[in-house]
Write a structure and sequence with these properties.
The complex is a heterodimer of chains A (239) and B (274). Chain A contains 7 helices and 10 strands. With 239 residues, chain A is an alpha/beta fold. Classes of the chains: A alpha/beta (239), B mainly alpha (274). At the A-B interface, helix 2 of A face helix 8 and helix 9 of B.
């Protein structure tokens, strides 16, 4: 099997506080991995380490067979972050401009937006049923609408792996069901490898094929069905 | 009466020093407002203030050695901007403290050189408030050339700057070297600060960078229109400033900044009424 992500014995610390301790796992092409764990257990840190947003203090990460520091095919990765706290709400960015940012990983300097880029943006906005928001300022949208725009940004470059960090927190129950169904559809129909970070073990057991339960170290790594039996204290309804 | 007013305006526009002032001022105004928009949104507004203080020391250095001050100021202020970035990157010092360190050294160095030389105090202090009406041909040429270079570089890096400004974390995941983009923005600011000194003076440079941008951001629902509105406001303030300086003997730099401030108050008023 092709390893899309290969994490070998990594540790991540914030100062003296070791958040991730000697974690190793592989994610193969086409996997749908649900990453669960308690709050503060290091799920987001692990994702940020994979994406190169925080440095690892030990170990090695390979992306698509290349060491992370040498990895350049950023368009292969679509990322939907947990919080919008890094987003500058004072910048009056339009929805189509926000989605265009997802195509920058395909471009070299100087980055010029071509008609085919705007066509791709229109297509993804239509697919996610938010085309009517195209010319609206991102900061004026509801939390759920913003989440869908950021999903469009993650999908627009047709990535081979999608990484979602707590994607459903800003969504109402109906939107959450639609969102999970969409992710599952992308995984099944297009074979897009998916990592979905969530504290919602019930939902994740329904949709993911594998579960990675992280509490500073790996507590469980295996089939979703096995996770229900492994941890009876957590809600889990594997379909 | 209208004829007299018309004649006066025509005469005013025929003065070569007025033409030079309009030309240099317009290019610098546009450059300032474009860069200012990114600086304000990146929470880097104060770097303009810090670098203008450094330019005080750099201009003193030029005067001390008898070199044309702008030839010294451009490289010194550019190097200082890189130094500010390196201090905040490599040490456990926040960016604002790094700006404070470098800018205070600039001011102190300028005062020390002025004191040691004893001869160029008047020249040096004239840079504090700027004098756009006294801009020379070479300064006009430099202003146009450097402004065009800055604007072309902004155009080339537009999407990188936009991406880093909107969401720097996500920008990194697309392979963007955010530190490098910050460096580009800072160095461009350094050049723009030096250019602005002749227009509004060292003390008012940061206002010239910040005010058109914040006003435009209050008024716009998209970033491109904010850039255009900012340029328009900045340009208008320069035209009004130069005109007020000629007709009413007002200081041009101060008039430019006050005009910008009035636009800001107006934009807040309009936002409040909406």
């Amino acid at each position: 099997m092709d390893d899309i992500i290969n994490v070998k014995n990594i540790s991540v610390s914030y100062g003296q506080n070791e958040v991730i301790k000697d974690v190793s796992f592989q994610i193969q092409k086409g996997d749908f991995v649900g990453m669960a764990g308690p709050n503060g257990g290091g799920k987001t840190t692990l994702i940020r380490a994979i994406l190169g947003l925080v440095p690892v203090t030990a170990g090695e990460i390979n992306l698509f067979g290349r060491p992370q520091k040498l990895f350049k095919d950023f368009s292969k990765i679509g990322y939907l972050p947990q919080k919008h706290s890094h987003i500058n709400s004072l910048l009056p960015a339009l929805v189509e401009e926000v989605v265009l940012l997802g195509l920058l990983s395909l471009k070299r300097f100087p980055k010029i937006i071509k008609p085919e880029d705007t066509k791709l943006v229109k297509e993804i906005l239509k697919e996610l049923e938010i085309f009517n928001l195209k010319a609206k300022p991102f900061s004026e949208l509801s939390g759920g609408q913003q989440q869908r725009v950021l999903l469009a940004r993650a999908l627009v470059s047709s990535p081979e792996i999608l990484i979602f960090d707590e994607p459903s927190t800003a969504l109402d129950p109906n939107s959450r069901v639609r969102f999970f169904n969409l992710i599952q559809q992308l995984n099944k129909e297009r074979g897009v490898t998916t990592i979905l970070v969530t504290h919602d073990t019930d939902h994740i057991c329904k949709h993911a094929g594998k579960i990675l339960y992280v509490d500073h170290k790996i507590v469980y790594l295996g089939e979703a069905a096995g996770f229900c039996a492994f941890n009876k204290d957590l809600p889990c309804s594997h379909s | 009466m209208i004829d007299k007013f018309y004649m006066e305006i025509m005469q005013f526009l025929q003065y070569s020093f007025i033409q030079r002032a309009f030309l240099a001022g317009s290019f610098v105004a546009i450059t300032c407002s474009v860069l200012g928009a990114f600086l304000v949104l990146r929470k880097m507004s104060l770097i303009g203030d810090g670098l203008s203080h450094v330019s005080f020391g750099a201009i003193a250095l030029g005067l001390f050695f008898g070199i044309y001050p702008f030839y010294v100021a451009v490289p010194v202020v550019m190097l200082s901007s890189i130094l500010i970035l390196k201090i905040s990157e490599k040490t456990k010092i926040y960016g604002d403290a790094a700006i404070g360190i470098v800018s205070s050294v600039g001011i102190a160095g300028g005062v020390l050189l002025a004191s040691v030389s004893g001869g160029f105090n008047v020249d040096l202090f004239s840079y504090l408030f700027g004098n756009i009406l006294a801009v020379s041909n070479i300064e006009v040429l430099l202003s146009i050339l450097l402004s065009l270079i800055v604007l072309v570089i902004v155009k080339l890096f537009y999407w990188d700057l936009f991406s880093v400004t909107f969401d720097s974390d996500y920008a990194k995941t697309t392979g963007l070297r955010t530190d490098f983009i910050n460096g580009v923005l800072t160095v461009l600011t350094a050049v723009t600060v030096v250019l602005s000194i002749k227009v509004v003076g060292i003390l008012l440079v940061s206002a010239f960078l910040i005010l058109p941008a914040v006003t435009a951001l209050q008024m716009s629902r998209n970033f491109r229109s904010a850039l255009f509105i900012g340029c328009f406001i900045s340009l208008l303030s320069v035209i009004l400033g130069i005109s007020a300086s000629f007709f009413f003997d007002f200081p041009a730099g101060a008039t430019i900044v006050i005009t910008n401030a009035l636009f800001f108050v107006l934009s807040r008023g309009v936002s409040y009424l909406k």
